[in-house]
Amino acid sequence: MNHMKRWIRWTPLVAALVLAGCATALPPVEDRQLPATPAAFKETDGRWARATPAEAQPRGEWWKSFGDAELDRWVEQAAERNTSIQQAAARLAQARALARSADANRAPQVGVGAGVSRQAGANNNGDVNTLATAGLTLSYELDLFGRLSQASQAAALDAQAREALLQSARLLVQAETAQTYLALRVLDAERELVRDTVLAYRDTLRLTERRQQAGDIAELDVARVRTEVAATESEALALDQRRAVLEHALAVLVGEAASSFEVAPQAWSASLPVIPPGVPSTVLQRRPDVSAAQRSMLAAQARVGVAQAAWFPSVSLTAQGGYASPEVGDLFRWSMRSWGIGALLSLPVFDGGRRQAGVDSARAELDGALAGYREQVLVAFKDVEDQLSTLRLLADQAEAQSRAVESATRATTLSNSRYRNGFVSQLDLLDAQRTELRNRRQALQVRAAQYQATVGLVRALGGGWNAGA
């Protein structure tokens, strides 16, 4: 009979344990909720290599494939001194600390305490009693329903997401530093071209002035050449202004003050690397932002379990041992020792809907994280396709522009010779010179776009493809 009574007494707790095993199961993420991975990139043409990198592997020093020692120096300095990277590293350190804090809740908690109290009241006839205590306390919460383990798992996943975001910040800063530096070098080449054109126009102006003084041509022709000289000088100054802005932007990226930062102009010697994008599935493994979105989704999934576990009782074991004495001087006598053990079961009954609201909030967070992950995956594929198509079209454009420059240069040479011999007008010469300048600048801009798209492809693929990357 007593055995039956004990069984009946424990039946509610056993039932709660059984129900908890069902209720705290994490909601599944179905395949249909995630975007399908394409079998191949639309822009591939058979040249691209298949690779099998992983998200956790280093990205390699991909910027060195451009063969520019100064670019290498600025990217490496940005990795050490860029403030965005430092902020991401601090957020990662904070997330790891929070993960350790959440994991610490699963371990026994031990404390040391001591105290002295004096008490007087009706129960002791007005006498003043003293009680001195000293000892250890131990508490441990049984994780019967997975609340603590799931909270620890969610915090660990948050830390992993922050680690991926730190890697994403590094890649972003590397790419922006490379693109800014390469754009600055393009402007150096363009400025040199425009200045050479100004010198050519000035030679034409001197020739035109001599012919006007000799009475061969009218003053109108001189005014036209002077206009071209002034307009081209204005364009050179505009390029100087754009270069200054890029130089200041590079200073911020490498962690220096713009007021004391300077990049001396020099010849543009960087080579254009060819980077194989692999297959679409590797992008999902390598892109740190995709990895961060995935970890955030899994953390949100774990928090649904934490919210569900709030419906079930928590069981804590406690123990204490030490000394208690009415006299401080007798506190540590062996006869004054004391101890105690206990178990505490806490089961919420009515909370006005707070726990259900917590479950609903966690599920909504999971839905948002799922949508964010899907979006990040789709954006990753879009970024790669954008850069692949851009590089393909720019290669064709560069070839066509090269032919245009060659023809324009030949036309200028012929026009200059015919003008000096009086066979064509000064307007014909100016038109040929303008056409050549426009085409040369356009060729530089196409080349610059190829460099920018190459860096963009590296970023879209999640890093370089060198050995060990």
UniProtKB/TrEMBL annotation:
It holds the Pfam family OEP. Its main location: membrane. Gene3D superfamilies: Outer membrane efflux proteins (OEP) (2.20.200.10). PROSITE patterns: PROKAR_LIPOPROTEIN. This is Efflux transporter outer membrane subunit. GO terms for cellular component: plasma membrane. GO terms for molecular function: efflux transmembrane transporter activity. It is a lipid-anchor. Residues 1-25 form the signal peptide. Residues 427-454 form a coiled coil. The keyword Signal applies. Keywords: Coiled coil, Lipoprotein, Membrane, Palmitate, Signal, Transmembrane, Transmembrane beta strand. InterPro entries: MdtP/NodT-like, OMP_efflux. It is found in: Cell membrane. Belongs to the outer membrane factor (OMF) (TC 1.B.17) family. PANTHER family: BLR4455 PROTEIN, OUTER MEMBRANE CATION EFFLUX PROTEIN.
